[in-house]
Specification:
Family: Belongs to the bacterial ring-hydroxylating dioxygenase ferredoxin component family.
Keywords: 2Fe-2S, Iron, Iron-sulfur, Metal-binding
Protein name: Rieske 2Fe-2S domain-containing protein
Distance between the termini: 9 Å
GO molecular function: 2 iron, 2 sulfur cluster binding; metal ion binding
Cofactor: [2Fe-2S] cluster
Strand content: over 45%
CATH class: Mainly Beta
CATH architecture: 3-layer Sandwich
Largest sheet: 4 strands, antiparallel
Helix content: under 10%
Number of domains: 1
Strand order of the largest sheet: 2-3-4-9
């Protein structure tokens, strides 16, 4: 059965930015879009296993800090080489100023 895990407060993330969230042995990123929606996806680049939280958020994408691969943060789709493997996304809900992701 899926479980909702509190990741952060909405105020912890600026618009068009992201933060790292670790749970157990997994790393995620929580992205706040410029439209004020929240998204969760794997936090490690599928190309060279670099933490994406050190990269950039722009134009609906997360950019890896190492080789500039990009991923659509809504779908996890790899959009620019060298990454060619999509990232997994996770359902997100916001309640009382808190962001939760479903595992």
């Amino acid at each position: 059965m899926p479980t909702w895990i509190r990741a952060c407060a909405t105020e912890d993330i600026d618009a068009d930015d992201m933060i790292r969230f670790d749970h157990g042995a997994r790393t995620f990123i929580i992205v706040r879009s410029e439209d004020d929606t929240f998204h969760a996806l794997d936090g490690i680049c599928s190309h060279e296993k670099v933490h994406l939280c050190d990269g950039l958020v722009m134009d609906g994408r997360v950019e890896c800090p190492k080789h500039n691969a990009t991923f659509d943060y809504r779908t996890g789709e790899a959009k620019r080489a060298p990454a060619c493997i999509n990232l997994k996304t996770f359902p997100v809900k916001v309640e009382d100023g808190q962001v939760y992701l479903e595992l």
